[in-house]
Structures are given as structure tokens and as C-alpha cells.
Amino acid sequence: MYPLAYNIAKDFLERHIDDKPSIRFDQGPTEAEKFSCSERVYRRVITQLIDLKIVQKDGNEILVKDHDKLSRFIHSHEEK
């Protein structure tokens, strides 16, 4: 079973690759529900990804900041 951060990062990668709309920060409750976690836990993971400079908050949107870092983060969890 993969950690929540992996699952959320993978979702960001898939959205980025498929050119889907970015996630809005106010969608936290909906996104948290999608990952079966609380909004608080979801926001913690987003904060972790921001701190790692993988994603960035731009106004009300959460955008992929560094595609390569995002891919490496995902692959590092897949190798475990």
C-alpha cells in the first residue's frame, strides 16, 4: 500500500500529463474525500509537497512546480 503523499503526488502527475485543470485550494474537502482522508491530513500532504518544492500554491490553485521532482518523488515510493 502506498502512502497518501504518493497517491496525491501521482494524481498531480496524471493531471499534469493529461492537461486537466489544476486543483483549487478550496477543493480540499472534495479532494480529501477522494483519497479517504480528512481535509486536515490532505492539506498537510499539500504543504509537504510545497515544502519539497514539487508543487506551488498560486492564488487559489495548486500547480506542479517541478515535473522532474514530482516524477522522482513518485518513483522513490514505487521502489520501496
Describe the structure.
It comes from Pelagibaculum spongiae. By secondary structure, the chain is an alpha+beta fold. It has one domain: Orthogonal Bundle (Arc Repressor Mutant, subunit A). The protein has helices spanning 4-17, 28-34, 39-51, 67-78; strands at residues 23-24, 55-58, 61-64. Strands 1-3-2 form a three-stranded antiparallel sheet. Helix 2 packs across helix 3 (39-51). The radius of gyration is 12 Å and the shape is globular.
CATH architectural type: Orthogonal Bundle
Spell out the helices and strands N to C. Answer: HEHHEEH
What is the CATH topology classification name? Arc Repressor Mutant, subunit A
At the first level of CATH, what is the class? Answer: Mainly Alpha
Q: Beta-strand level of the residues, as a percent range?
A: 5-15%
Strand order of the largest sheet: 1-3-2
Number of helical regions:
4
Protein name: HTH gntR-type domain-containing protein
